[in-house]
Design a protein that fits this description.
single chain; 319 residues; alpha/beta; seven-stranded mixed beta sheet; 19% strand; elongated
């Protein structure tokens, strides 16, 4: 089946020579399972590009288009393709679907919004068990740091609006604890079903006298960046998110992992497995390269002065 959710990327990578898999004579067949289409993903393009640079071109990409119920069927399609390795990207649902199907091929995950140890995907980061290894992004720590930055930007703020959804609800309790230690109140909105009513949530937050908005890590929030940025500007609400796309869309700032480098590391781990390394021999890596993007134009529009410590730490300033 070839459509927006499922397509073979061989044409885009035809210039690269095929690579043998685990000592076999045929090219490796690679399955990638993602919550959203390739062109909408923050990480998948870097993974695909790096795999191509490493000589792997027989790629089968499946996107759930934000509908978790589609994963079992997508896994079935990839299993029928007899993939030699699977990549479970971004959310926990792709990995969970692969585990439920009891696939025997190695799995490389990108845990972009969950802790693989806390969620039981692996027992330890150093020696992952089963057939799984990958890269973990410490989103809870990053979310707390974003809240600290927003407190610097809005020092008078005492009540922040926090948006979570099915992808990021596991981070909420840690955010509540951090807010308590900072003497902040959180007005929490947890979205369940798409499309999310962002306008209603923001308006309800403003009635509760929130003074800033923080979004947790979610592919849905990034996909809706333009809408969220426009609403934050219209409601004059200083906002912070995890992806540069949110800052580019009008949020005051974003703090998140370097998506290009994370994608490259995921691809490189997969290449090691395809060359014969066991997943248990490859420790799960924790992303350690982050980007703070500050939107100075959005700050001026809101009449906010960005503190020097925030500006000094910015990796990129949108002027």
């Amino acid at each position: 089946m070839t459509d927006r959710r499922a397509f073979v990327l061989a044409g885009a990578l035809a210039a690269f020579a095929p690579q043998c898999v685990l000592g076999q004579a045929r090219p490796a067949k690679i399955g990638l399972l993602s919550p959203r289409p390739l062109e909408q993903s923050a990480y998948a393009p870097s993974i695909v590009r790096r795999l191509g640079e490493l000589g792997y071109r027989n790629l089968h990409y499946r996107s759930a288009d934000g509908v978790p119920d589609r994963y079992p069927l997508l896994v079935e399609e990839l299993v029928e393709q007899r993939c030699d390795i699977f990549f479970a990207l971004e959310g926990e649902q792709p990995l969970r679907a692969l585990r439920a199907a009891r696939v025997h091929a190695p799995v490389v995950f990108l845990a972009a919004d969950y802790d693989p140890v806390e969620r039981g995907a692996i027992s330890t980061m150093r020696t992952p068990d089963g057939n799984r290894t990958g890269v973990f992004i410490p989103q809870t720590l990053l979310a707390v740091r974003r809240m600290q930055f927003m407190r610097d930007v809005v020092p008078e703020g005492r009540n922040f609006l926090l948006m979570a959804d099915i992808y990021s609800r596991g981070q909420v309790q840690a955010m509540r604890r951090a807010a308590e230690s900072m003497r902040l109140d959180l007005t929490v909105v947890e979205f369940v079903k798409r499309p999310y009513d962002y306008a209603g949530a923001i308006d309800a937050g403003l009635k509760a006298e929130v003074e800033a908005l923080i979004t947790l890590s979610s592919p849905a929030f990034l996909a809706d960046a333009a809408m969220l940025g426009a609403l934050a500007a219209q409601r004059r609400l200083p906002s912070a998110g995890d992806a540069a796309g949110l800052a580019e869309a009008g949020f005051l700032l974003s703090l998140g992992a370097d998506s290009r480098r994370v994608g490259e590391r995921v691809a490189e781990i997969g290449a090691r497995v395809l060359k014969g390394a066991r997943t248990s021999e490859i420790p799960v890596e924790q992303a350690d390269q982050f980007q703070l993007v500050v939107n100075a134009a959005a700050a001026r529009a809101l009449g906010k002065s960005l503190p020097e410590p925030v500006m000094a730490r910015a990796d990129r300033v949108i002027s």
